[in-house]
Amino acid sequence: MAKQKKTHKGLVPVSSRERASESVSATRAPFRLGAVGIGAIALVVLLILFVIAIPVRNYFQLRSDIAQTEASIEAKEQQIKQLESDLNRYQSEAYIREQARLRLGVIEPGETAFRIVDPALDTDTSVTSDGNEEKPLGAWYENLWDSVTKPEALGEEEIAPPAVEGEVPTLAPTEEATVQ
Q1: CA contacts within 13 A on the Cβ side of 16
Q2: What is the DSSP string of 137-162?
């Protein structure tokens, strides 16, 4: 018996490699897509993009909401710090004394207060009201009812005569208008 060559599994001898690849490529048909195949692939790609787009949009929306909330929290913390410092300052005896001096003109015992008056200011002795005081108004609901039910009293000069057809309405001359 003749010796047979041992072949390794999966290895093609060097002399027959070219022939082996030719035989495989000759048996395989070329892959071609039709219009239906291209449409199906496009539909699958669009479906994948749609499925991915919604969670990505939600992710970025929530990230911006988180950033906005963190900024709001930071602003509130700054406001809390400011209010706490104001509270500490208002509890200080020195600050209370300073504010009493500035706002109320309080002086310490033993101090002399001076008020500087501008000589250019003119002291006016006239009264600001004309002396005709109106009677106090009643309850609000009475005023409301009176304003709805009672017409305002118009003076003689304020009542305009009824307009005649074809005439342009004019205002009656007043005393001020005639004395020019």
Answers
A1: 8
A2: P--HHHHHHHHHHSPPPPPGGGPPPP
DSSP, res 128: S
- Torsion angles phi and psi, residue 8, rounded to 5: -80, 145
What's the farthest any 2 CA atoms get from each other in the chain?
Answer: 151
Q: Which two tokens stand for residue 72?
A: 């709001």
d(CA 145, CA 138): 11
Q: How far is CA 35 from CA 12, 39, 62, in A?
A: 40, 6, 41
Q: Over range 142-167, report the average pLDDT.
A: 71
Place of tokens 């539909």: 43
Take residue 174 and report the two structure tokens written for it: 């007043």
Give 165's pLDDT tier (boundaries 50, 70, 90): low
